[in-house]
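JOB MANIFEST
job_type = single_chain_structure
chain_count = 1
residues = 288
[input]
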Amino acid sequence: MTANQIQTTHIGSLPRPPELLELRTKRQDGEPVDEAEWNATVADATRDVVERQGEANIDIADNGEQSRVSFNWYVADRLSGIEGKREQELWADLQEFPDYAEETFKTDVIDLSEHPVVTGPVEYTGRDEAEAELSEFRAALAAVDADFAGEFVTAASPSVVTATHVDDHYGDYEEYLFAVADAMAEEYQLVADAGFTLQIDAPELLTVGHTAAYADEPLAEVKGATRLHVQALNEALSGIPEEQVRLHTCWGSYEGPHHLDTDLADMLPEIYEADISGLSVEQANPRH
């Protein structure tokens, strides 16, 4: 916030155009996609979404995550040791309403019950892809007539990766978590070195309480899990100035009952321990 203006921003992911979604679906299904066509379509979509943010008078803009499959599962293209998928339990609140869950999620583009599987050591292999994404964003910013006060780029937190990728390799959760933190640190540094604000997407800091693993656990256990997740995040952020990092958290971007959500007041003291200078909490939608 400036002295006389409350600046506007948003969460990060913005709608993709139909032609990009079509190519993305083909890539997900293993169909051949011309790389030049893919790159050109991503570049066009990024330029368009940056331009539209300028037209909407957004002060702090991003690239809309146009090239990514999702805010968290994109890391399967940037981390080693991930192979295959396995069906996992849905959120505990949805398990109490199975008919609703089936009706709501059976038509999703991404099957939320199918999670990528970690089968080997996790290391960061996505430097080329990450640098290409950053270059596309810089090119879009240079091409449009918009005067943004700042720009940000999102990245998945270590613990949202571990929460949505099944571990078949490490066998010890802390070892797995800190291995992912060490790997993701390279992506965080790339964003910071490019001069953008880094936004960490960390819904699991609030959603851990209604996962199947913790839904029946006492609050102290839930807070302890979040405390560990923040510790891993801080380790991954080591060397990046706090003023260059902001964090987004929420209770999950799915249309569910959310009656098992943990109270924000209980979790904020743990989240405040993160080495960040900005925090956004999704509260605009009563079911999010």
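[summary]
The first strand starts at residue 60 and ends at 61.
The beta strands are 60-61, 82-87, 114-118, 150-156, 166-167, 197-201, 245-249, 278-281.
exit_status = 0
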